[in-house]
Amino acid sequence: MGVFLTQAKTPVAERLLSIYNDINTLMDRHQPDTVGVEKLFFGRNETNALSVGRAIGVIYLAIAQRGLPWAEYTPMQVKIAVTGYGGADKQQVQYMVTRLLGLQETPRPDDAADALAIALCHAHSFKLGSMGMRTQ
Question: What tens digit of pLDDT does each residue of 25-50 get?
Fold first, then answer.
């Protein structure tokens, strides 16, 4: 588990290229059969939505180039899959991720724990019939 970090002062195109290269390196190393992604919702923060949308775009590009099936999950779907309760808070999700995966400590940063929760949700959904799976 881990996160991809880029420097805020680096030009956007270079940051996106870094994310694209990192995701390809990760997929080369682990050879996934399928990919789960969080479906993000943004209220009023357009700047944040644009930045995250760009990053997700290069991730989807890497997925599509490999022809991998993928699915998106809302935060509520992830919470239900991991804790059994769609209104679970971040600490509850982190606790269950830690327990379900038999980890010694809570994954850090929070984004890493969120990614593991999405992976658990996807693993359960994929086993149950690949609901919502897409290929592009």
Answer: 999 999 999 999 988 776 667 777 78
| DSSP of the chain | -------TTS-HHHHHHHHHHHHHHHHHHH--S-EEEE----SS-HHHHHHHHHHHHHHHHHHHHHT--EEEE-HHHHHHHHHS-TT--HHHHHHHHHHHTT-SS--SSHHHHHHHHHHHHHHHHHHTT-TT-B--
Compute the CA torsion angle 33, 86, 38, 116 (nearest 10 deg). -60
Length of the chain in terms of residues written: 136
Q: Are 34 and 125 in contact, with CB atoms under 8 Å apart? A: no
**Cα–Cα distance between 42 and 105 in angstroms, integer?**
30
Residue type, 59: I
Q: Which residue has the higher pLDDT, 127 or 5?
A: 5
Q: How many CB atoms lie within 10 A of CB 97?
A: 24
Residues 101, 61 contacting (CB under 8 angstroms) = no
pTM of the entire structure? 0.84
